[in-house]
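Researcher: Please predict.
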Amino acid sequence: TDFNGADFSDTEKQIFGDYRTITEWETCVITCLSHPTLCFFAVWIDENYWHKPSVGCYLKPKTGWTLLTVEHISASNMTCILERSQLENATSKREKTLKGINRTQLSECISEDTDFNGADFSDTEKQIFGDYRTITEWETCVITCLSHPTLCFFAVWIDENYWHKPSVGCYLKPKTGWTLLTVEHISASNMTCILERSQLENATSKREKTLKGINRTQLSECISEDTDFNGADLHNMSETLGDYRAITEWETCVETCLSHPTLCFFIVWVDERFLYEKYHGCYLKPETGWILRTRANVSVSNMTCIRKIQERAQLKRIKSINRTKLTECIREDMDLGGADFSDADKQIFGDYRASINWEDCVVTCLSHPTLCFFVVWVDERFLNDLYHGCFLKPENGWILRTHEYMSISNITCIREILER
């Protein structure tokens, strides 16, 4: 299939970069996906095509071309690819959501000896879910329901002890329309509850992993005991920071502050030995505005200091894995052109252009998860030594292009490997 004509103008080609030099279908598709408002199809002419100079990548707009049947040419639909990849990512994300959380831990979301009778999905709707009646495990039944959040709200599971064996297994149910019955050996699982519970578990697990291997004793250089920063509480930022006064652990208090690097610079922790119980727990503080006081059983933790220790630990972890083991996260001979951070942003990161190796560059990006999503590393073989080293990039706004002696590191991918 060919989409003949409607090629982009020379001006538009400057936006994409020289896509005619692209040598792989995957890179052609990624280039198109990177410009979702302009590019809707990637046409690929393979090496068996009769006219060799025409081989390679062509990007096409939404309309204006003529559909032709031509051997050795394929047209890839970006809308379809995005929908498919988003579905895969959503399914993967939901599978991870349940990872490490067994049915016992989710008991509050499951009504035992309960059936939601009726309101079964139509044959047309069943085509969306796949043949869920062949599912043999409760977990898979739940994941199938979670994968269709606008349609499926409950998973009914009939276990092997039910009197009518052909009925055993998985049933998916909509939000309303069923009749609630009490039936032995049948359970109904609430998807809204499971998502909330598993997200809470994962958030806790993530906090534990962040400080894993660095206990409070090792962070003593960052903590001033018997010290209080009086006043300047961030209580008026509860919508952003959450109800931090309800936090019951120092580690969680630290993680909450670390998660908001432009707002929170210190935590004050009042331990259970403090005279007045109502003051026990977590307080988040800005960079300035408080009054330094000496106060028994109160401590101040410095986030800048803790972050530096975390970075050292993270660097050690990356070096123990090494770049070779992270190859699935790195695209060689590729660049993300443009979208460099402003001078104001650079103050947040520090002078990352001074990073002397790839590992340091990656750690800097990892330390700012809401700002930095990719690292571009220019190695010493690149012609102009002014460009050697580290470049940090945001989530979007750049132009994907091929470039010798450059590499792109996907920080989301690296973070997932580090957390395994």
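Model: The radius of gyration is 27 Å.
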